[in-house]
Amino acid sequence: MARTKRAEKAALRRALEEIAQEMRETDSWGMPPEDDALSRVDLHQFGIAVAMPDEAIVASAGDAQVPFSIQSISKVLSLELAHEAFGDTLWKRVGREPSGNPFDTIIDLEQYKGYPRNPFVNAGALVVIDLLVSKLGPDEVAQAVRNFVEKQLDGEEVALSDEVIESARQGGDQNTALMHIARHFGNFDNDPAAVMKPYVVQCAIELSCEQLARMGLFLIPPEPSDPTEEEGRRIGRARRILSLMLTCGMYDGSGEFAYRTGLPAKSGIGGGIIAVVPGHASIGVWSPGLDEAGNSRLGVMALERLSRRMNWSVFANRGSI
After folding, report:
1. CATH assignment of 72-205, given 3.40.710.10, 3.90.550.10, 3.90.190.20, 3.40.50.300?
2. Which of 51, 105, 114, 286 is the most buried (most CB within 10 A)?
3. DSSP label at residue 31
4. How far is the C-alpha of 275 from the C-alpha of 292, rounded, in Å?
5. The whole model's pTM is what?
6. What is the pLDDT of residues 289-310, one digit of tens each?
7. Contact 272, 33 (CB under 8 A)
8. CA gap 124, 238 in Å, rounded
9. 160 torsion bin: left (phi>0), alpha (psi -120 to 50), beta (else)
10. How far apart are CA 193 and CA 199, in angstroms?
11. What architecture is domain 5-66+208-310?
């Protein structure tokens, strides 16, 4: 028999506290990020939070209110804006297939003649932003992403990490190379510097686990029995983005993560992960130590345990809730 909502929320709060304690007791915190701006962060931190459509934050545990830069999680946001602006014509510029190679690889882009495998590898995210820059302009794209986040957070102002922005200004050669290769094959329209600016800004957005979980609720839109045309488009975008998160959202560890958790998710090298139980819950988790695929080691471990304890895999028969 399906548990009641009250019982489920009580079980969820217990599960988060137990998982946070288990993470504190581990000796497997992961590796520091290679990025200079992130490598100085104390690895011995862990936070997790869950939001549901009918209640902003249902439960949180650990360092759930500590802000961190969301990094590649922001690719979900620019994808939402581009999909809303361009519809399915977006897919003429970027693919929907897993890569199996590192997220910043040049090999895939050359092999597929400037056509990125998916919007969550760096090449794909840059092409998505190139589209938005052509429509809005670089400063406007950066502001649009921040506005979108703040709207999901009911007007809370979000901060940017100055360290992340400065680090990107000093580096970024590989991303610039990706943009030039895409342009060589006719799949990039703007000056790379104009696209790099909003890309860096969106990666530098700082959120806590609680804010990340709340922000992710846009991927759980209401589904009325007789949706309007706009509601139907919003529902369709969420379903398509979630499908890509399941297959491509965790770098070249996406298959392993899907096997272990059964959840659509997107990670960032800052140690954050946003995961979604479709139609039900949004999860924000953070721990800065990374695994070999560049995902938060403890974040992956925690989401696997949470999915099992709450029976939240998309492949599970959860019954009515």
Report:
1. 3.40.710.10
2. 286
3. B
4. 19
5. 0.95
6. 999 999 999 999 999 999 999 9
7. no
8. 18
9. beta
10. 10
11. 3-Layer(aba) Sandwich (3.40)
